[in-house]
Write a structure and sequence with these properties.
7-stranded parallel sheet, Rossmann fold, 195 residues
Length: 195
């Protein structure tokens, strides 16, 4: 795959996470902007979400936030984005974030990030999304999830080929090479979606 022009980033909004996570998110935003990739994310102003947006904006990048109206009313939205799209539901948010994305990148996060990531993996399994998915495994954060996915394969809930749906990197500097080098995927994956 060529270098991405538009990436969807899933990330946490928590203000209480360790500094290492925040620094990685900020660096990711900066790296994506310098590579010319627009960032589409959940529109929040705090935590890793805010850090990735600030990193990209600080490097002159384009950042599009997609956020449900109730979160705007709670004043959770980032106030300095290139574009803020206000939608009516979390479902609309997720669809707009991934629509047209050349890749999905997952930074560490909580239940919302897990849900978004697993939905993207499900869409890829069904051939509805065929572009790279990259997990940034800062401090081994995603190790238990990766073990669970491997168990799903070993217990025959998923096909062994499904392990090629995502790439795992330890540092954000490895994200762009992982996107470019990701194995190809197509709608033909539907042939083995049902194990």
């Amino acid at each position: 795959m060529d270098a991405p022009r538009k990436v969807c980033v899933y990330a946490a909004s928590s203000r209480q996470v360790g500094r290492a996570y925040v620094d990685e998110a900020h660096r990711l935003g900066r790296l994506l902007a310098r590579a010319g990739a627009a960032v589409v994310y959940g529109g929040g102003g705090s935590g890793l979400m805010g850090a990735v947006a600030d990193g990209a904006l600080g490097a002159g990048g384009r950042v599009v936030g997609v956020i449900p109206r109730f979160m705007v009313e709670l004043e959770w939205a980032h106030r300095g984005l290139s574009e803020l799209r206000v939608v009516n539901s979390l479902h609309q948010r997720k669809h707009q974030m991934v629509e047209g994305a050349d890749a999905v990148i997952a930074l560490p996060g909580g239940s919302g990030t897990f849900e978004e990531l697993l939905e993207a993996i499900t869409w890829k399994r069904l051939g509805l999304f065929t572009n790279p998915i990259v997990l940034v495994n800062t401090r081994g954060y995603f190790d238990p999830l990766l073990e669970m996915l491997l168990r799903a394969v070993n217990e025959r809930f998923m096909d062994r080929r499904h392990l090629e749906m995502w790439s795992v990197v330890q540092r954000v500097e490895q994200v762009l090479p992982a996107i470019v080098e990701a194995p190809g995927w197509s709608e033909d994956a539907r042939r083995f979606a049902a194990v």
